[in-house]
Amino acid sequence: MTIDEIRQEIDALDDELLKIFNRRAALALAIGEIKKAEGRAVYDPTREQKIFDRMQGTNPGPLENSAIVRLFERVIDETRRLERIRTKGE
């Protein structure tokens, strides 16, 4: 494969990731609405740890588990921020 071909494949994966991140955020917002209606906190450290544990347990590499956790921490942080903004604004 050439560099351009590899970059095209990376671009296609980035497009998929963008869709996945936004779908995940939409689902997290739906959970946020349920939590708000039930008077539950946005932050759920037990749930987040379960996500990290599951992702590390299924990680085939080459990314190290610590990198996977950092990536998911960022995704979760951004969705939690969005969830807080949306639930406060309503």
Automatic annotation (TrEMBL):
Name the Enzyme Commission number(s) assigned to this protein: 5.4.99.5
Give the protein's recorded name. Answer: chorismate mutase
| Top-rank lineage group of the source organism | Bacteria
Q: Which GO terms describe its biological process?
A: chorismate metabolic process; L-phenylalanine biosynthetic process; salicylic acid biosynthetic process
Q: Give the GO cellular component terms, alphabetically.
A: cytoplasm
Query: Do you know which SMART domains this protein is assigned to?
Result: CM_2
SUPFAM superfamilies linked: Chorismate mutase II
